[in-house]
Amino acid sequence: MVVYFSRAGQNKQHGTAQYINVGNTELVAQKIAAQLACSAVALQPALPYSSDYQATLQRTKAELTQETKVAAQPLSVALMAREPLFLGFPIWWGTLPQVVATFLATTELAGKQIYPFCTHEGSGFGRSLSALQELAPQATVGSGLAVRGSTAYKADQAIKNWLQAIEMER
């Protein structure tokens, strides 16, 4: 199963805030789900983020600084115990968003294989992999895929190569 958090609206693309209709991480998540012939489920914060880039920056900086537990709406499907979890998120402030941190801290992931993927604009995974391991210590974190957000729309080959490398290609 693919679970992802993504945000549309104004996003940083090529160094400037540009409006996008579909979040970069959602694009990658849908491509992964298509390659795996599985479901992609959006992780939605209980209080949605603004579509305004600057407002989102201010909110997310405060959430990270204050280690805010950002509540999420319940997932529309249950995680299956034996299935690997492909977990996607944008990199905010060098790490994963607090809504993803809350999801990890409140979801039973013991024994789960997690394959992370992220979108970023130059930082790669940043500190998110260590945060992921800290928040899901009973899970096994596999090799991940970092995609530059501004190239998410053309990440098909990178996704295929990654899935082959982790032996998940269909």
UniProtKB/TrEMBL annotation:
<dbReference type="Pfam" id="PF12682">
    <property type="entry name" value="Flavodoxin_4"/>
</dbReference>
<protein>
    <submittedName>
        <fullName>Flavodoxin</fullName>
    </submittedName>
</protein>
<dbReference type="InterPro" id="IPR008254">
    <property type="entry name" value="Flavodoxin/NO_synth"/>
</dbReference>
<dbReference type="InterPro" id="IPR029039">
    <property type="entry name" value="Flavoprotein-like_sf"/>
</dbReference>
<feature type="domain" description="Flavodoxin-like">
    <location>
        <begin position="19"/>
        <end position="165"/>
    </location>
</feature>
